[in-house]
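Minutes, project check-in
Item: structure for the 273-residue chain
Input as provided by the requester:
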Amino acid sequence: MRPGLSRNTFAALLIVVSACAASARNVPGAEHATAALVSGFVQNKVLWICLGIAVWHLLRNSSPALGGSHLAAAVPAMILAASAAGIWPWIGLSLFLAMLLATPGWGPARTGLLIALVAALHEVAINVVGELGGDILLGIDAWIAATLASAFLPDLQVEGNALQMPGGHMVVLVWGCSSLTNLGDALLMFWALVSIGVSGSANRRQRRRFVGGIAIIACITIALNATRLTLMAGDHGTFHYLHTGEGAAWFRLATLGITVLMSRWLFRDEQGL
């Protein structure tokens, strides 16, 4: 084994440090860094699972030792991740990862880096999409939920991104309840799990499976989220149970559980699955 810090190890450490810094800043009301990191871990399970898979990818193959140019290029990203706020840490991290992705001869480690990059930028991408067309997408979510509910809640009305009952009960859709956010988590985990067993260039059959899996998971995720919204629109008690109670956790667990089962079933004959 060659002495010194390998390029893969350094990239993995940089990703974890950047994710920790970003999670700490994204937790409101945390009194100190430790509480922020613990809360960030609890609130971003999919992010951390995918980052863990990415680190596994990065460390499973040997790689050339780091040179001075790589260390120099990483310094801005590390400084930004540790001290800056807002989108700047992600900009620094993205620049460094883009440089590493452009380096030839990385093999499966390239997949790990892509997973880490997408996981790190997941929340940023959701926020950007929300700013560009958030009201339209939330309105579509509300329309799907109202369509499913029409059989047993005929008086339910859609007003923009809100579900309104005649008695005054209203469910207003925000990004935390949107299908887009849940779908982003599910597809990110699906990609991470599948990439463990399918490394290198996927063949045509594998690509068809992957596209089919994305389509099925998207339909199931949207249907589950619409069902949850429909039930929340029924009465106040159900709303609180499914919004802040155990019901919300059960629906999220069902989405991610189905994603895991789909990844294993579709690629059950691949190495590693």
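Outcome recorded: The chain has a mean pLDDT of 75.
No further action items on this chain.
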